[in-house]
Amino acid sequence: MKIFLSFAAVVAVAVAVPANYEPIHVGPALVDTYEPIHVGPALVDTYEPIHVGPALVDTYEPIQVGPALVDTYEPIHVGPALVDVDNYEPISVGPAIVDTPTTQSTPLVQIILNINQATTASAVETPAYNPQPAEIVEKPVAPTPVIVASPIIPAPVVTLPEILN
């Protein structure tokens, strides 16, 4: 039965024909107007030479390939900034304090403070600046003893008899 179906499929493919069949002309193509095909080099009306060599420049400027030469030398400091104690001026990192406030007709932000009058706030003291380096005293750390338990020795595996499984 399989052989019969395979044979029927091969016969069906062999006799199949497309619905719109047009014969193919195998001979040379027929063209109404004749135009010759040029196979040789192209012919150009105006001749412009092609430069293959190095570029020619009117004004010569030498190209510097070596390191850059600088007239004034300024060393680059990569370490921390060193400040003289005599010229030291502290930098304020807090909020800016303005002597004369500006007047505005309407406030942009309205802050309502509800403060209990019974408690008084103490003034915060700023630490004095000491330009001398601080002394750091290192204390040795005593190691703590480690308790090691007795080692666990693995025992060989014993298989149970079939009756117990």
UniProtKB/TrEMBL annotation:
Q: What is this protein called?
A: Cuticle protein
Primary gene name: 101740440
Keyword flag Signal: yes
**Domain of life of the organism in this record?**
Eukaryota
| Keywords assigned | Signal
Instruction: Identify the stretch annotated as signal peptide in this record.
Output: 1-16
